[in-house]
Amino acid sequence: MNYRFAGRMKRVPESFLGELFRVSAVPGVISFAGGLPASDCIDVDGIAEAARQVFAEEGRTALQYSTTDGYLPLREFIADRYRRRLGLPATADEIQIVNGSQQSLDLAAKIFIDPGDAVGMERPGYLGAIEAFSFYEPVFHAVPLEEDGPDLAVFESVIRDHAPGLFYGIPNSQNPSGTTYSDRKRRAVAEILEGSETVFYEDDAFGELFFDGRPRVPVKRYIPEQTLISGSFSKIIAPGMRIGWIYAPAPILREFNLAKQAADLHSNLLCQAILNRYLRTHDLDGHVRRVAAVYGEHCRLMCDLLDDLMPAGMTHTRPEGGIFLTAALPRGVSSMEVFHDGVREGVAVLPGVPFYVDGGGKETIRLNFSAVGAEEIVEGMHRLARVMHRLV
Ligand SMILES: Cc1ncc(COP(=O)(O)O)c(C=O)c1O
Fold first, then answer.
1. Is residue 363 part of a domain?
2. Which of 18, 138, 305, 374 is 20 to 30 Å from 120 by CA-CA measure?
3. Both 108 and 196 in a single domain?
4. How far is the CA of 122 from the centre of ligand 1 (A)?
5. Are 227 and 370 part of one and the same domain?
6. Are 142 and 121 a contacting pair, CB within 8 Å?
7. Is residue 188 located within the same domain as residue 328?
C-alpha cells in the first residue's frame, strides 16, 4: 500500500531517539540518556490522598467535559505563584493549561509558523522543540549558547536580518546544556527584541529547580507583551499527570485557545483537579526545595566524577539547576561511538546530534543526573570513564 502521507512528515527529523532508547533500555544499563525526574521525588501518597478527596467531593464535575482554558482554581494557583515568586503581575485570565508544556510547543508552532518562516533557536536547542516546530516547516536560525546565555552578536543579527516571528529559548538550566542566562544577557536579549516583531518563547521547564533556591528574573519581566512563558509540573510534581501551562498576553492566548480547542478540547480535568487539590494541601515550596537539593547533590557528584575520571580534553558545563549537563568530548571522539561502546559497557548517554538544527553535536553528549541515584552515578561514571579512556 502506498500511504500518501503529508509532505510535512518528510521535514521532521528522523527520530533516532526511539532507537537509542530501545538500545539503551537493556537490564543492567545505567542510563544518563533520558530526562525523567527521580521517582523517589514523586509524592505518590500525597497525590493519592488528593485524588481520593477529589472523587469524594467533586467527582461528578471533575469527570465531566470542561472549558478549554483549564480548571480555574489551578490557573489561579499558577498566577498567584508568578506574583509571589517572580513579581510578575499574572492573572488567571493569562494562563492556559496544556497537556504538558510539550503541547505548548506544538500549539505555538501551529499559530506562529507558516512553511518557510524564520524561527530562532538556541544552539544546541531542546530537541522536543525542534521536533514540534519541524512539523510546521520553518527555517531555523540557530544562535550559539555561551556559558552565560546566547551569543548576543549572533542573536542580534538573527533578529535584525531574519525577523523571526518566534525565538525559542530556555533561560533557566537549559536542555541539553544546563546553561543559565546571566542577568546581563536576559536584559540584553530583551533590549534587542524590543521594537521587533519577534515573540520570545521563554520555556521555563526548570526555573523552580535552581540548587541555590534563588529565582532568576524572567525575560518576560522586561518585555511582557512580547514574551510567552511555558511552565510545567512535570519536573516538580509528576510528569505522568501531563499538566503544563502557557502564560501569555491576551491576544496570543486567544490563538492558543483556538488551537488547543481543535487539538483536544481541554486537558484532563480530573488530573487538573487532583493536582490543584494536592498543591493547596501541601507545601510546594518545601517539596521543590527537597527535589532541588537532591538534584544539586547529584549534579555536584557527576561534575566531580567527570573532573576526576575522564581523559584530558573532556569538558562539561556546570549547571546551576535543572536535570541535565552537556559534556564536550576530546577531539576526534564521536558521540555515537561513545553511545554504542557505552551501552556495551553498561552505561547510556545521549549523543548531542538531535539538539542541533544545522549539523553539529557529533562531539558532545548530554547527561541526565535526576533519574539515577548517587550510587548509580558513581558506578555509571566509572563505566563511562573506561569507555572514554579506550576511545581517546
Ligand atoms: C525544556 C523542556 N521543555 C519542555 C519539556 C516538555 O515537558 P512536559 O511536556 O512534561 O511539560 C521538556 C521535557 O523534558 C523540556 O526539557
1. yes
2. 18
3. yes
4. 15
5. no
6. yes
7. no
Query: Is residue 213 included in any domain, yes or no?
Result: yes
Residue 168 near residue 125 (C-beta atoms within 8 A): yes
Among 122, 127, 175, 242, which is best to mutate for testing ligand 1, by the most ligand atoms less than 8 A from CB?
175
| Of residues 204, 231, 301, the one with CA closest to residue 78 | 231
Q: What is the CATH number of the domain that holds 342?
A: 3.90.1150.10
Q: How confident is the model at residue 22 (pLDDT cuts 50, 70, 90)?
A: confident
Inside any domain, residue 171 = yes
Which of 101, 133, 204 is the best mutation target for the ligand 1 pocket, counting ligand atoms within 8 Å of the beta carbon and taking the most? 101
In a shared domain, residues 177 and 29? no
Q: How far is the CA of 147 from the centre of ligand 1 (A)?
A: 21
* Ligand 1 pocket, mutate which of 78, 235, 260 (most atoms under 8 A from CB): 235
For residue 232, which atom of ligand 1 is closest to its CA? 11
Q: Residue 304: which domain range?
A: 7-43+286-391
- The reply to whether 2 falls in a domain is no
State in Å: Cα 182 to ligand 1 middle. 22
How confident is the model over 40-91, as pLDDT tens digits? 999 999 999 999 999 999 999 999 999 999 999 999 999 999 999 999 999 9
pLDDT over 90 at 9, yes or no:
no
Q: Are residues 269 and 296 in the same domain?
A: no
Strands 95-98 vs 315-316: parallel, antiparallel or unpaired: unpaired
Give the residues surrounding ligand 1 with Cβ less than 6 Å away.
Answer: 35, 100-102, 126, 128, 170, 175, 203, 205, 232, 234, 239, 244
Q: Which residues pair with 315 in a beta bridge?
A: 328
Alpha carbon nearest to ligand 1 atom 15, residue: 205
- Looking up residue 197, the CATH number of its domain turns out to be 3.40.640.10
Q: Counting atoms of ligand 1 from 1, which one is nearest the CA of 235? A: 10
Give the count of domains, the chain.
2
pLDDT band at 263; cut points 50, 70, 90: very high
Residue 130 Cα to ligand 1 midpoint, Å, equals 12
Largest CA distance in the chain: 62
Q: Are residue 297 and residue 154 in the same domain, yes or no?
A: no
